[in-house]
């Protein structure tokens, strides 16, 4: 079968900030502690958008990705996570959402991992500039400096800007009313847990360099995954799943408290979270959900013996790491589909929790709390849950008007939850995106 895409990755020296290569108006990035991948510029080789229909969207995207990678000729001289043919993707939380799930294959990807850097060029096989005899999409395999010679020039981040945010469809009072309704349903045994979110809406000035938001989030929250895909920008502390050479890992977060104002209150807050029956029950729900979803695809599945305290600049979370070995050849996208939605972002039982979310949230979540990440031609990839994020209207950013955005934050509701405390938890979870927009 002839190739539709020709892909070549070569290592080269790169001292610049990865974000300098991304498109200012619509950055595509996946970053953690300076490592990761970015799409250089705005050009894309393939875009797949899947809207609401009879078929699950993840199945449609997985089939489309299989077709793309199956007809690509890949020459990867680096072989690190994020090299070769890669696609960025962001999926909706709910199949009923009016938003679309998207998979984007950039023309050029620049990455860094463990001190090594590379450039990947992705070209159409019938590109008249492609040397058919050399199968070379612009890089000379024998020239170690070829990548640097053909790399696009980075650009400085644009001027600082500030956004505005205000109440969305779900007010603070409305949120507490929704929590009380959920608690009544839990008391009636309709479900054991539901995660309820609220929204904030706002704008940023026309022409804003959105890379500045990614930079602020990745700098202030270095232990999270800072992501930007099709206008969805955030910093997630929760890895949904990572698959690399047959090893599968996930991190489960459920149970949250705000950090203290000083060392003493900080230690007390962490101890109270560790000892909280309500938070430990919520966390156990989430761990069982992940283990049950991974079990059909893996062997040697291990969820370490109990939750630990994950420290973020503004929050403590109860966290459990899960590790397994892939047994059935599922891709990272397949695993993300199997895991989503976890109890940590939906509730349990899943179907009842989703129905409650549709009933009690007066907005469409879109891609908030859905899977976001990347996948490569071997099925490896890294996926997070889209939390601490906002969706920007990048499609309308070229109209010269302010860019609209919606930010989201949620909290897990179980028996014993307090409506005011849950509302305050969402306020703390809004802080990363609110501070970065300021």
Which fold name fills CATH's third level, the topology of the largest domain?
Anthranilate synthase
Structural class assignment: alpha+beta
In total, the number of domains comes to 2
Binned strand content: 25-35%
Mean pLDDT: 89
- CATH homologous superfamily (4th level) name of the largest domain: Anthranilate synthase
Quaternary class = single chain
CATH class of the largest domain: Alpha Beta
Helical content stands at 25-40%
Topology:
Elements: E1 5-11, E2 29-32, E3 35-39, E4 44-50, H1 57-70, E5 72-76, E6 86-90, E7 101-106, E8 108-113, E9 116-124, H2 146-150, E10 164-167, H3 172-187, E11 193-204, H4 211-220, E12 225-229, E13 232-236, E14 239-244, E15 247-258, H5 263-275, H6 277-294, E16 298-303, E17 308-311, E18 315-326, H7 332-339, E19 347-348, H8 350-360, E20 371-376, E21 381-385, E22 389-392, E23 403-414, H9 419-437
Parallel strand pairs: 1-5
Antiparallel strand pairs: 1-9, 2-3, 2-12, 3-8, 4-7, 6-7, 6-20, 8-9, 10-11, 11-19, 11-23, 12-13, 13-22, 14-15, 14-21, 15-18, 16-18, 17-18, 20-21, 22-23
Helix pairs in contact: 3-9, 4-9
Write a structural description.
- The structure is a single chain.
- The chain is an alpha+beta fold and 438 residues long.
- It has two domains: 5-150, no CATH class; 164-223 and 232-437, Anthranilate synthase (4-Layer Sandwich).
- The protein contains nine helices and 23 strands.
- The protein has helices at residues 57-70, 146-150, 172-187, 211-220, 263-275, 277-294, 332-339, 350-360, 419-437, and strands spanning 5-11, 29-32, 35-39, 44-50, 72-76, 86-90, 101-106, 108-113, 116-124, 164-167, 193-204, 225-229, 232-236, 239-244, 247-258, 298-303, 308-311, 315-326, 347-348, 371-376, 381-385, 389-392, 403-414.
- The strands form two sheets. Strands 1, 2, 3, 5, 8, 9, 10, 11, 12, 13, 19, 22 and 23 form a 13-stranded mixed sheet that branches.
- Strand 14 and strand 15 form a beta hairpin.
- Helix 3 crosses helix 9 (419-437) and helix 4 packs across helix 9 (419-437).
- The model is unreliable at 144-149 (pLDDT under 50).
């Amino acid at each position: 079968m002839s190739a539709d895409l020709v892909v070549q990755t070569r290592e080269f020296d790169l001292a610049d900030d990865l974000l300098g290569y991304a498109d200012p108006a619509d950055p595509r990035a996946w970053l953690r502690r300076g490592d990761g991948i970015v799409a250089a510029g705005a050009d894309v080789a393939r875009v797949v958008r899947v809207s609401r229909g009879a078929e699950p969207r993840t199945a449609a995207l997985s089939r489309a990705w299989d077709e793309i990678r199956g007809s690509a000729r890949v020459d990867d001289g680096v072989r690190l996570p994020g090299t070769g043919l890669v696609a960025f993707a962001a999926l909706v939380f709910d199949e009923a959402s009016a938003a679309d799930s998207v998979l984007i294959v950039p023309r050029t990807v620049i990455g860094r991992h463990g001190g090594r850097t590379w450039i990947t060029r992705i070209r159409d096989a019938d590109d008249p500039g492609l040397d058919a005899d050399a199968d070379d999409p612009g890089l000379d395999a024998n020239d170690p400096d070829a990548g640097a010679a053909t790399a696009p020039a980075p650009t400085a981040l644009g001027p600082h800007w500030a956004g505005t945010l205000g109440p969305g469809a779900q007010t603070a009072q409305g949120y507490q009313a929704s929590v009380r309704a959920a608690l009544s349903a839990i008391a009636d045994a309709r479900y054991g847990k539901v995660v309820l979110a609220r929204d904030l809406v706002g704008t940023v000035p026309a022409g804003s360099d959105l890379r500045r938001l990614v930079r602020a989030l990745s700098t202030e929250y270095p232990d999270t995954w800072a992501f930007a895909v099709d206008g969805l920008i955030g910093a997630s502390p929760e890895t949904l799943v990572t698959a690399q050479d047959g090893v599968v890992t996930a991190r489960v977060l459920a149970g949250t408290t705000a950090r203290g104002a000083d060392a003493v209150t900080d230690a007390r807050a962490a101890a109270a979270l560790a000892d909280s029956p309500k938070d430990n029950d919520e966390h156990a729900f989430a761990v069982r959900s992940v283990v049950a979803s991974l079990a059909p695809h893996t062997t040697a599945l291990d969820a370490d013996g109990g939750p630990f305290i994950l420290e973020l600049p503004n929050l403590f979370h109860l966290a459990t790491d899960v590790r397994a070995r892939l047994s059935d050849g599922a891709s990272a996208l397949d695993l993300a589909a199997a895991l989503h939605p976890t109890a940590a972002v939906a509730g349990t039982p899943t179907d009842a929790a989703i129905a409650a979310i549709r009933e009690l949230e007066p907005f469409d979540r879109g891609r908030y709390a859905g899977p976001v990440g990347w996948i490569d031609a071997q099925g490896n990839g890294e996926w997070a849950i889209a939390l601490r994020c906002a969706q920007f209207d990048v499609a309308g950013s070229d109209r010269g008007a302010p860019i609209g955005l919606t930010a989201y934050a949620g909290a897990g509701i179980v028996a014993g939850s307090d409506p005011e405390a849950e509302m305050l938890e969402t306020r703390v979870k809004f802080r990363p995106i609110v501070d970065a927009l300021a």
